[in-house]
Design a protein that fits this description.
48% helix, alpha+beta
């Protein structure tokens, strides 16, 4: 019986052992989970390298490819730079070719809206007669013009008479309505010096008359011209109206510029040393091209309109100018040098030298003339319109009275008014 009871208890113990065996794996799982958690925390705490390690052979291959690419890019850039440099050199050479530089400079002249010039003329001319000795010292002329149209001029002449210098100054201005203003300075002092050389004096009455005009502006308008010559006044009015119309017409200006490009009559003889940032060229006039240019220029719209204003005077003046220029070339040694800006190709100056024009008095030595002109396209007319100008009748009347008193050439009765188509002298 005892044995049976003990035997009956053994199965319970066995059941408990089973339960314990079931719980033991659970604790093992929790322990494993705990270890896994710790491991994951340690992994989280440690820095993670997300980039996979590239095989050594692949890294070297990429480096070689990048090196080749960089070399190709460098070669391409070098080739492009060389091509650009070569193209720039060719373009610069063409742009700065002497013929192109001169052509640009002259072709731009019709398109200019304003300009000013400063000219200085010197000469070794000497006049000798009996006891009179006259030397030419200097002549200066400053001009300014714009497309309004407006034109101004200031001139000064200096000569030496028997060792004494005499200087005479004059100024002029024309406005867009055709009015001409002018004045002469140093009138009294110049006449006194001239008379003193001849042992004479200027009478006080003559001096008083001249003082009224000395340094005073005089005015000569289109209405004054109409009193003398209605035809000339009408022609001048037509020219002014035509100029105003075409001064704003760029196509008409280009028509003249293009005509010169077809017949560039200013030709280069040789290059001279550059100075002040300007190219220098000794030039001459090709007579054949000039005549063809003048012929074709007369067919441009602007010149045609001018011809309609004064057909005879325009054709005669152009032919006379050309004829005079050819005669001067045949008689004298002429050197003409033009100066052109290196970059803008603007005409900056013109120098003219004429030799062997004639002989000086008793010495028999030949004389010449030199003229240097500086050109500036940033300035126009520099003289303001005077508000206190006297009439041209008052100006001429004062001169007539002075000469009459001094016993000069104008000895007829004086009148300060117009009579018909001319002054009463």
């Amino acid at each position: 019986m005892k044995q049976s009871s003990n035997a009956s208890k053994k199965p319970k113990a066995s059941k408990q052992n089973k339960n314990s065996s079931k719980t033991k794996p659970a604790s093992a799982k929790s322990s494993a989970a705990s270890k896994k958690s710790v491991k994951s925390e340690s992994l989280a705490a440690a820095p993670v390298n997300t980039q996979p390690a590239a095989p050594p052979t692949l890294s070297k291959t990429r480096a070689k490819r990048q090196t080749k690419r960089g070399l190709v890019v460098a070669i391409v850039i070098a080739v492009v730079v060389l091509l650009v440099a070569a193209a720039s050199t060719v373009a610069y050479a063409l742009y700065q070719k002497p013929e192109n530089v001169l052509l640009d400079a002259i072709s731009k002249l019709p398109l200019a809206t304003k300009a000013s010039t400063k000219t200085t003329v010197t000469s070794d001319f000497l006049y000798e007669y009996d006891t009179v000795n006259v030397k030419f010292k200097k002549f200066t002329l400053d001009t300014g013009a714009d497309t309004s149209p407006k034109f101004s001029a200031n001139a000064e002449l200096s000569i030496e008479v028997n060792g004494r210098e005499i200087s005479l100054k004059a100024s002029g201005l024309t406005t867009d309505d055709g009015t001409i203003y002018f004045k002469v300075d140093n009138v009294v002092s110049v006449i006194k010096k001239a008379l003193s050389l001849a042992g004479q004096k200027l009478p006080s009455q003559a001096e008083k008359s001249l003082e009224k005009i000395d340094g005073k502006w005089a005015k000569y308008s289109l209405s004054d011209m109409r009193k003398r010559d209605q035809k000339s006044a009408g022609q001048l009015q037509c020219v002014l109206d035509t100029y105003k119309k075409y001064s704003k017409d760029d196509n008409a200006k280009r028509e003249i510029a293009n005509t010169y490009k077809k017949y560039p009559f200013v030709v280069i003889n040789k290059e001279v040393k550059s100075q002040d940032g300007n190219f220098g060229y000794d030039v001459s006039i090709d007579d054949g091209k000039f005549e063809t240019f003048v012929k074709d220029a007369k067919e441009t719209s602007f010149v045609k309109q001018l011809k309609s204003c004064a057909p005879d005077s325009l054709s005669h003046s152009s032919s006379k100018t050309h004829k005079a220029a050819k005669q001067a070339k045949s008689k004298a040694d002429i050197t003409m040098t033009v100066w052109v800006s290196q970059w803008s190709h603007e005409l900056r100056g013109v120098d003219v030298s004429l030799r062997n024009l004639g002989t000086n008095g008793r010495t028999g030595k030949s004389y010449g003339v030199t003229a240097k002109t500086a050109i500036d396209f940033s300035k126009g007319a520099q003289v303001s319109v005077p508000s206190d100008a006297i009439s041209v009748e008052e100006w001429t009347g004062a001169v007539q009275r002075a000469f009459q008193v001094a016993g000069g050439a104008y000895s007829t009765p004086v009148s300060s008014s117009y009579s018909g188509d001319s002054y009463d002298y």
